[in-house]
Amino acid sequence: MTGMQASALIAGLDPGSSKCGLVLADSSQGQVLEAAILPPPASQALLQAWQQRGLARVILGNGTGSHTWRPLLRQLNLELTLVDERGSSLAARQRYWELDPPNPWMRLLPTGLRLPPRDIDDVVAQLLLERWLGEPLQRRNGEVLRQWPPNGFKNGPAP
User: Fold this and answer.
1) Cα–Cα distance for residue pair 103/66, rounded to 1 Å
2) Cα–Cα distance between 95 and 116 in angstroms, integer?
3) Over the stretch 78-104, which tens digit does the pLDDT of each residue have?
């Protein structure tokens, strides 16, 4: 059973030069477990932490930022699958509103004019993963990790 759970863990990565969107999903349950928007070094550290939990495959957007990530992911011995990310930013804006429906007055605006109230790099990562899986993923909560490690201290608090 443990091997089955581990093989179900899959990550989506929207690479960027200053920040990356990441999601960890359980593909057997169709559920996003964690989401993050982090700088590249913290993104790599988070992927390593997820790898300790059983992550073996990363779905990576094939844009220009993917060139830096390919060797890093191979170095971590993570299986790598490239997914076409054309149009993903615009599609992720719509997907954001599906995950977090707008309030009633915001619904009066045409869909194209609704701007999410936060960065949506994590939603782009989720969308890339959904494209590869061929089905939508559900989210348990809307929490997005913005710092890694979570407490901000690599070796404990400063004296």
Assistant:
1) 35
2) 10
3) 999 999 999 888 888 888 888 888 777
Q: Which residues is 25 bridged to in the sheet?
A: 10, 32
E strands, 27-135, are 31-38, 57-61, 79-83
**Which residues does 102 contact at the CB level (< 8 Å), separation at least 6?**
109, 114
Cβ atoms of 123 and 95 within 8 Å: the answer is yes
Q: Give the span between the Cα atoms of 28 and 4, in whole angstroms.
A: 9
Q: pLDDT tens digits for 19-61?
A: 999 999 999 999 999 999 999 999 999 999 999 999 999 999 9
The answer to whether the predicted template modeling score (pTM) of the entire model surpasses 0.70 is yes
